């Protein structure tokens, strides 16, 4: 964002390039840290197009297209396909209460209506509902639904996703503290909020694990605890953006009313001071 809260698309393009240079396997726009909840429909399209153009086919682009209603989710998912996204991530409907059969019906209706790979996004702390492993098991049978991102923070929930779905169904960790453990359990990786700050560090957890260097991977996994602990101080988007700005990446403010409280700024500064950060954002 610019200071006036309008979209800063040139900076978004620079951040995409920064992530790709760090070795990420894919780029995810319009996720939680992408403030999808604070953007108008037309702005979401702009963000998708900018991200896809910036990636230029070097890595896949996943676009967040989950909305409250099924009809709007279908429309935004079709727009993502048209814009050139390689896959979409669809968060469960939020605010209004919904049952597990209702969730399954929602995701199946979207998957029936579009021709693009879908990764379901489970984040009960923000949506008010946890997608059960029984529901994920049902949805894994749909050919367009290829995986799930679990941001529940409940590792047993992640384990059941892995246990109850086919081997080729992708289970991704959405909690940065559990990425290594998800890999060990048979998951395929993670979608990381801290990667907005330290992409090389987060990429190395996966690469070290893949190369059999568990001890080193665990050291990196453990190292993010300090900055992770600051996320609970405020809206995580506010914390991540404030930290990114401190690191020299002018991503601007979050949209009001989700601004960082001044009393939390010092704690974030202190946490960042424990990391040795290179100019590229690695550590």
Overall description:
There is one protein chain. The chain is built from 13 helices and 7 strands. Helix content is 46%, strand content 10%. The chain has a single domain, classed as TIM Barrel, CATH 3.20.20. The chain is an alpha/beta fold. It has a 7-stranded parallel beta sheet with strand order 1-2-3-4-5-6-7. α3 packs parallel to α4. The mean pLDDT is 96. α3 links the parallel β2 and β3. It is globular and about 45 Å long.
Structure, briefly:
With 283 residues, the protein is α/β, with parallel strands linked by helices. It has 13 helices and 7 strands.
Properties at a glance:
13 helices; TIM Barrel; 7-stranded parallel sheet; 283 residues; alpha/beta
| Radius of gyration from CA coordinates | 18 Å
Beta-strand residue fraction: 5-15%
Query: Runs with pLDDT <50, length 5+?
Result: none
Strand order of the largest sheet: 1-2-3-4-5-6-7
Please indicate the count of domains: 1
**How far from one another are the termini?**
25 Å
Total DSSP helices:
13
Largest sheet: 7 strands, parallel
Write down the CATH topology: TIM Barrel
What's the SSE blueprint?
Blueprint: H1 9-21, E1 27-29, H2 41-55, E2 61-64, H3 70-83, E3 87-91, H4 100-113, E4 118-122, H5 124-127, H6 133-139, E5 145-150, H7 155-163, E6 170-173, H8 179-185, E7 189-190, H9 199-210, H10 214-223, H11 225-228, H12 236-246, H13 262-272
Parallel strand pairs: 1-2, 2-3, 3-4, 4-5, 5-6, 6-7
């Amino acid at each position: 964002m610019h200071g006036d809260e309008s979209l800063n698309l040139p900076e978004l393009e620079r951040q995409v390039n920064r992530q790709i240079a760090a070795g990420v396997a894919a780029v995810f726009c319009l996720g939680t840290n992408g403030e999808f909840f604070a953007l108008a429909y037309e702005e979401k399209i702009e963000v998708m197009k900018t991200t896809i153009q910036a990636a230029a086919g070097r890595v896949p682009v996943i676009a967040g297209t989950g909305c409250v209603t099924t009809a709007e989710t279908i429309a935004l998912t079709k727009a993502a396909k048209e814009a050139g996204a390689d896959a979409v991530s669809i968060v469960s409907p939020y605010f209004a209460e919904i049952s597990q059969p209702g969730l399954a019906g929602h995701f199946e209706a979207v998957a029936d209506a579009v021709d693009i790979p879908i990764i379901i996004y489970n984040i009960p702390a923000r949506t008010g509902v946890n997608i059960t492993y029984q529901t994920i098991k049902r949805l894994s049978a749909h050919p367009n639904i290829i995986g799930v991102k679990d941001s529940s923070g409940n590792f047993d929930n992640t384990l059941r996703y892995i246990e109850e779905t086919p081997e080729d169904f992708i289970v991704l960790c959405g909690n940065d503290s559990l990425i290594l453990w998800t890999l060990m359990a048979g998951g395929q990786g993670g979608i990381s909020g801290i990667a907005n700050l330290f992409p090389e560090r987060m990429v190395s957890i996966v690469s070290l694990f893949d190369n059999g260097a568990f001890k080193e991977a665990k050291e990196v996994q453990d190292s993010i605890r300090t900055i992770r602990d600051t996320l609970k101080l405020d809206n995580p988007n506010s914390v991540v953006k404030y930290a990114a700005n401190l690191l020299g990446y002018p991503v601007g403010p979050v949209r009001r009313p989700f601004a960082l409280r001044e009393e939390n700024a010092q704690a974030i500064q202190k946490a960042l001071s424990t990391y040795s950060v290179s100019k590229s954002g690695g550590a």
